[in-house]
Amino acid sequence: MRPPLRPPEINVTPLVDVVLVLLIIFMVVIPQLEAGAAITVPAARNPDPKTDVENAAILVNVTRSGDVMLERQPIARQALVHQLKVLRRQRPDRPLQIKGDRDARYMQVREVFKDCQTVGFPGVSLEVGKPEEEEG
């Protein structure tokens, strides 16, 4: 005669451990995916509210060291105009936004701004932060 069968048990402790580890990993990794490059934008007292969510702007970043990034991907300054022309042909109504680090040389940001204007975008805007973000 066999011994009576024990009812099955579900041990959820390993599941909870795995979920917590995944949560911590995502909390660390996701902010890094969004960042692309560490850029601290200059402050403005009355920034324009973000209005066009459906038609996201093309992002051009100028880092502290003067490197240029297009859509979070490094790009040589010489290739920037050509790449912007390609993007403009694909969607001519898409706006362009420049995000220049506040410690970048103004001349570098201005040259990138001029390059973006020569492509013919209807609106080239500069991203700024709130004055509270500047203190730190």
Radius of gyration: 24 Å
What is the residue-mean pLDDT, rounded to a whole number?
A: 81
CATH class of the domain at 58-134: Alpha Beta
Q: What structural class do helix, strand and pairing data support?
A: alpha/beta
Topology diagram in text:
Elements lengths: L12 H23 L22 E5 L5 E3 L2 E3 L1 H14 L5 E5 L5 H14 L4 E3 L4 H4 L2
Helix pairs in contact: 2-3
What this model shows, in words?
- The chain has about 140 residues and is of the alpha/beta class.
- The protein has a domain of about 80 residues: Nucleotidyltransferase, domain 5.
- The protein has 4 helices and 5 strands, in the order H-E-E-E-H-E-H-E-H.
What key attributes describe this structure?
40% helix; alpha/beta; 136 residues; elongated; single chain; 5 strands; 5-stranded mixed beta sheet
Short recap of the structure:
With about 140 residues, the chain is of the alpha/beta class.
